[in-house]
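Weekly puzzle thread! Below is a chain. First person to post its structure in token form gets bragging rights.
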Amino acid sequence: MDNIPNVKIGIVAVSRDCFPASLAVNRRKALIKAYADKYDIVDVYECPVCIVESEIHMIQALEDIKKAGCNSLCVYLGNFGPEISETLLAKHFDGPKMFVAAAEESQNDLIQGRGDAYCGMLNASYNLKLRNTKAYIPDYPVGDADDCAAMIHEFLPIARTVIGLNKLKIISFGPRPTNFLACNAPIQKLYDLGVEIEENSELDLFEAYNNHADDERIKDVVRDMEEELGSGNKKPEILEKLAQYEITLLDWIRDHKGYREYVAIAGKCWPAFQTQFGFVPCYVNSRLTGRGIPVSCEVDIYGALSEYIGTCVSDDIVTLLDINNSVPKDMYDQSIMNIYPYEHKDTFMGFHCGNTCSKKLSDCEMKNQMIMARSLPAEVTNGTLEGDIIPGDITFYRLQSTSDNILRAYVAEGEVLPVATRSFGSIGVFAIHEMGRFYRNVLIEKSYPHHGAVAFGHYDKALFDTFKYLGVSINEIDYNHPKNLPYPSENPFS
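Winning reply:
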């Protein structure tokens, strides 16, 4: 993915001056070896400076990891640790940071080999709070070299997201469609997250599109589309227009991202788009999302933001779908009941017109947008990518700002079932345990819009921790509660 950052975590060991510094240094070396044995060593950098109760050491370590190109920090308590200098390092490091602590290795070495980092982590967290410094502390932040290596590896997607958002520009085209109040986007929280936004008119985009007529690159893009679609190329007559549009968007990104490194797009895809451009943009949206450039439909700015977060967390393609329709009872009875461990209310269909990347569809065909063709000439509604979404694990999630500028989010893990949808669009049969209660007590109760982002795999833990790091209140991060855990809004007698 070219549109997300590479993460390099500088690992800095720290030592209290009344403890052997060699204990912290040797444990740091063991941590680096453990990481190299299990993961990609290019992700981390071993800082040679061990901070021993010294602000001078802190400055030396800070300069060293900056020089090494580190954009993330891990403060490693090899022993109790110097609470002042270690938290000053975190305060002055410009990027995401985490704290982990070394566990004691052996009952046979609890005199000179005892480090007390279990205790030191308490002082570190206290001082971070005093200095109003944000840092990621794992669920249980104390472990041996293998444990701490795993914690650092789990921090990678969180760090990648934080870095990405601080260098992200969301480019939007047009106001949200009429009657789509749910796609409103208070922008204050975008700026709070470090995100820039560029808002444009559909006319600006239309002018740019017309200026790309007869672009010499169109033929090459058409050939690439033909190769991707294969036998699913049911609308070959529309490919040149789609290729022209794709080039237009890519050139717009190049010319408008300014000082930002990463981009997501929120586009208005109806109602005037079809009659003026002469096609629907779904397939192009799917292709850009497949390249790590999320494109949301219906000018859903927080949908685009959510997609980008999922792209960073998963390092994979995501999609944005309507939480769309119920699963018919006969479909449930015939294809799900007693086959998969879900009740009927656990299931629903996730759908959008044709914006899901071909790599995430079991098969695909280029078609026209059936809903729009009910009221428009069919020939201007071509350009959707239809097919059933691949079965497998998914995470359904969204980050949203309320109209009064409160950030809230939800995360729910589930799966796409290998059940034929017998419908149209990019669509799948989704199953999430206790979805019925989640639908009522989170999605409805918390006034979420109808779009949810989908990451292909179980990334619930990473997304939850990411939202916490981004500053979403723990009271505003929801998930699908198990049967024995009621929601605050839930009727206890239901």
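Puzzle host: Confirmed. Bonus trivia for everyone else. The domain at 9-165 is CATH 3.40.50.10940 (Rossmann fold).
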